[in-house]
């Protein structure tokens, strides 16, 4: 039964259960069952007050997001009706909150008269992060408890706050110990004679409200992602000027419209895909994996230092090892500076900063890898250097340690062959800066043991990364696709576009940064090195000479003050006429008559190149599902989250349309690069769509 009830000394107790996170799921019958229990207890003369509680570690994580696309019209109705039922009761209701009350879970608690929570509980309304607004009364009830200014910050930010802060803001009435249900019963008994304290009956304090709303509007992104924030503010303002019912009507209407919008669909897909990637096809979920207790990193460069910070931020001890004393000292200095900046900016307390420093050790001796559960090689991207490291690790690392290479393109199977224990070797491709970027490509080699893979994915979760499993190929999932993305960007330059136009078009599409600005940020010399290697390995797949010409000028991007753009103080890119002239001259050398190229063509060529290569990656079983590709690109390459990822976006555009445009491009300049993937041909012809390949995932 989803809901159980009993009466204890005049207090009616309702306990609902929908493990593990207790979503207020209409499909599971949760709101309907709570409603029936409330009516029964409210009508019982021996009941003086009611406690609403939940089983397990969490009160409720909110609505079941997986239901949103199945029957949008039926999603909110039961939860809204439950709020109205709570408003109409004769007897007071106390919510007993443990763990957390988020989204629809908090909206349910807000509709009760009193709220008591454990000290470790988190509460919040994160709907805007999914392109929505609270849709079951949250925009009206919250400001009546906290005041408009605080409600605006909480709803527009979409972040959760701890119980102590929620108590200070008036969102909670009391804090409880471990047995919140028992304390809620006692609390209900103490207020049983005081009557109702409905949140809807309170006046909204608008002190500071107008300025908070102006600030939230200014911070809201332009276009689709900001629509949710603007909608929530509109609902709050309506509640102030037209009262609870007027505001509720606006809230319901806005939620219903946003629920079926394309940005909200994309955001939901990205959210669900991030959770689905942890369920690796073919990997037994019952496999017992011990948590990682200690980490060693070989290499103290930018990447090794960033990984060390990420590990320490997660509370794990880590040792950075390098035979170069000067390099090790630079790493130590970088760690100190990064932690000091976080303390200075208020992101860390002094005590937390000191704790992080204490977790990071430095050593000149490779034997310091002993005792580490995970050893991460982060040396120069050269197979000979990596061979030396892994042969040494084979002698020195603990027998069952995970041996991971942070390579971004090299063959993990070849690296594993440098050891006598290839079953313990895995790729861990971190993204720079490693202490900030959320993505971690976990590369499964031909001989990687299931336990090694499971330990690597567990470690990713421990250090708060989104781990995505990839097979072995040049570039894995992300960089293999990025190569085709860049190839089209460069060909567009040859045909008639300029760097600033390509970047502006892709940024208007929603990319965090255009492709040419991205390479300036990463360092043009990195791509140059990879292109030199691939020119030997793949001579039948030519590149544009433009990026190489820029590198030959010593323009390696931001770090040299010049790449495709000029960079002054602050790193702001300025258009350089010299690069425009270089691009035009290269077109002339190739015998190309430059032509006007529209932004739509730029976006289609860059994005559909991703889609086509993504389909090949699925054919080659480098990625198990389209959602794995989407998660890599949303979290590692700045693909707009509200578009869900390249494969999801292709489904929304329609695969027949995508294929038609690819066939158009195949008949034009450098058409060899547009051979449609067999999977794309089949999917477009059958009307299946990539989503069908996700199985039970997003």
What is the CATH homologous superfamily assignment of the largest domain? 2-enoyl-CoA Hydratase, Chain A, domain 1
CATH hierarchy, class of the largest domain:
Alpha Beta
Q: What ranges have pLDDT less than 50 throughout 5 or more consecutive residues? A: none
Number of helices: 28
- Overall geometry: globular
In spatial order, strands of the major sheet run: 12-11-10-13-14-15-16-17
Number of strands: 19
Strand content: 5-15%
State the secondary-structure class: alpha/beta
| CA-CA gap between termini | 27 Å
The count of domains is 3
The main pleated sheet reads as: 8 strands, mixed
State the CATH architecture of the largest domain. Alpha-Beta Complex
Summarize the structure in words.
With 698 residues, this protein is α/β, with parallel strands linked by helices. It has 3 domains: 3-260, 2-enoyl-CoA Hydratase, Chain A, domain 1 (Alpha-Beta Complex), CATH 3.90.226; 295-470, NAD(P)-binding Rossmann-like Domain (Rossmann fold, 3-Layer(aba) Sandwich); 478-694, N-(1-d-carboxylethyl)-l-norvaline Dehydrogenase, domain 2 (Orthogonal Bundle), CATH 1.10.1040.50. It is built from 28 helices and 19 strands. The protein has an 8-stranded mixed beta sheet, with helices on both faces. A 6-stranded mixed beta sheet has the order 1-2-3-4-6-9, sandwiched between helices. Strands 5-7-8 form a 3-stranded mixed beta sheet. The longest helix has 36 residues, at 224-259.
What does the secondary structure layout of this molecule look like, with pairings?
Elements: E1 3-8, E2 11-16, H1 30-43, E3 49-54, H2 72-75, H3 77-88, E4 93-97, E5 100-102, H4 104-110, E6 114-118, E7 122-124, H5 138-146, H6 148-157, E8 161-162, H7 163-169, E9 174-176, H8 180-191, H9 209-219, H10 224-259, H11 262-276, E10 295-298, H12 302-313, E11 318-321, H13 325-344, H14 350-359, E12 360-363, E13 374-377, H15 383-396, E14 402-405, H16 412-416, E15 425-430, E16 439-443, H17 450-462, E17 466-470, H18 478-495, H19 499-509, H20 515-522, H21 524-537, H22 546-552, E18 565-567, E19 573-575, H23 577-589, H24 599-619, H25 626-636, H26 646-653, H27 655-666, H28 678-686
Parallel strand pairs: 2-3, 3-4, 4-6, 5-7, 6-9, 10-11, 10-13, 11-12, 13-14, 14-15, 16-17
Antiparallel strand pairs: 1-2, 7-8, 15-16, 18-19
Helix pairs in contact: 1-3, 5-6, 5-10, 6-9, 6-10, 10-11, 11-25, 12-13, 13-14, 18-24, 19-24, 24-27, 27-28
